Amino acid sequence: MAKEVSKVVKLQVKGGAANPSPPVGPALGAAGVNIMEFCKQFNARTQDKAGKVLPVAITVYKDKSFDFVIKTPPAAVQILEAIKLKGGSGEPNRKKVGTITWDQIRLIAEDKMPDLNAFTVESAMKMVAGTARSMGVNVKGGNAPA
Amino acid sequence: MENNTTDQIYVEYDFTVTPQLPWNDVLMAQLGEVGFESFIETETGIKAYVLKTTDAATILDTVDIMNNDLCDIAFAKAEIPPTNWNAEWEKNFNPITVNNRCEVRAPFHQASGVEYDIVIEPKMSFGTGHHQTTHMMIEHLLNENVENLEVLDMGSGTGVLGILAQMRGAVKVDAIDIDTWCYENALENVKRNKTDKVAVILGGAEQLEGKSYDFIIANINRNILLQDIPVYAKSLKKGGTILFSGFYEEDLVHIKNKCMESGIVYDSHLKKDNWIAAKMIKS
């Protein structure tokens, strides 16, 4: 049965740690959604990614029901994780503080394909590599896209 | 009513990020690592939320991107007073009846005359019977004999399961929750249902030190259960029953295995829309 959408809420919440405080509470509460229900579901679905910041898109329907899609972490987050670096470089163009291989870039690109505006893995890889460079991370080694 | 939830005040940081790509994502990633919990993108950057008790002002100095010369970041911050964000849903929900024997309803609903009539005003706490896990835990409790037993309700939320345990004959119930809203709310609900054998306690598994129970109820989530099962096992008397919920079917195997390590044996489970409520027994 088709349901009328009341609004779509996009948030970033740590896996396993949704609670009814802001921004979840105000974003869903005003629409009459049972926030506790959302938190229980989101947390149960993200136990394997506990503590990781995850983008979530929640569709709220006019009848106050909802469903949601959890996306994989943003490319920037995955790049930081791949190079095991707590932060990017303070001076990205002058002082490269980390290196990521094209193989690691490929894994992130494949993971983010559904969210990126790219038709091929190769073009997705170039986008992810661009993000890495702008964060002060060197891209070298492994199999570069043609 | 006086509310004691000041330790759960959140601070909203409204960051203006220029340029936004990829720095919004980097900022969220880095803030996430130092205690910020959740984020929402705005026209000009992001809003980030952190507990007031976290020393965010000091933390921000350690966040790399704040000193990055490739992007400009400015912020304004504001405290968000404790608010019941779930009030809209709570003022107008439907009562829930389980097996025609137990009804969970709000004060504004008429009593329907079932055997166990529980009145809950949830105030942003979990446990109204609407969720599959609460529903199945109520089913379990209706089938179990808890007469004259000492019961622990871990992660008690509104207190609904502990309240039902007393109605079913338990002589003593400890209802423990780590969330201040839940603690305050369970106190109110226990009073409202005149179930004076339910003691509401604020805290986590550390509260179980030196205590023992005949029967344990824990509707929480997989990771917390896996972490605390050894503690529950220690607090459960030999032959005692423990009910677990708050996880999906695919996680049942992990719960079973962890229980085995602690001498707790799987008995049976209920399933509703992929959610599980399992019964285990200490051998």
UniProtKB/TrEMBL annotation, chain A:
Ranges for domain Large ribosomal subunit protein uL11 N-terminal: 9-66
Native organism: Nonlabens xylanidelens
Keyword line: Methylation, Ribonucleoprotein, Ribosomal protein, RNA-binding, rRNA-binding
Similarity remark: Belongs to the universal ribosomal protein uL11 family.
Keyword rRNA-binding: yes
Record-given protein name: Large ribosomal subunit protein uL11
GO cellular component: cytosolic large ribosomal subunit
SUPFAM superfamilies referenced in this protein's UniProt entry, alphabetically: Ribosomal L11/L12e N-terminal domain, Ribosomal protein L11, C-terminal domain
UniProtKB/TrEMBL annotation, chain B:
Enzyme class, spelled out: transferase
Entry keyword Cytoplasm: yes
Pfam families xrefs: PrmA
Signal peptide: none
Cross-referenced Gene3D superfamilies: Vaccinia Virus protein VP39 (3.40.50.150)
Transmembrane parts of this sequence: none
Keyword presence, Nucleotide-binding: no
Keywords associated with the record: Cytoplasm, Methyltransferase, Ribonucleoprotein, Ribosomal protein, S-adenosyl-L-methionine, Transferase
GO molecular function: protein methyltransferase activity
Catalytic activity, reaction form: L-lysyl-[protein] + 3 S-adenosyl-L-methionine = N(6),N(6),N(6)-trimethyl-L-lysyl-[protein] + 3 S-adenosyl-L-homocysteine + 3 H(+)
Subcellular location: Cytoplasm
One GO cellular component, as annotated: ribosome
EC number from the UniProt entry: 2.1.1.-
Binding site for S-adenosyl-L-methionine: 134, 155, 177, 219
GO biological process, one term: methylation
Superkingdom of the source species: Bacteria
Known function: Methylates ribosomal protein L11.
Entry similarity comment: Belongs to the methyltransferase superfamily. PrmA family.
NCBIfam families the record matches: PRK00517.2-2
Protein name: Ribosomal protein L11 methyltransferase
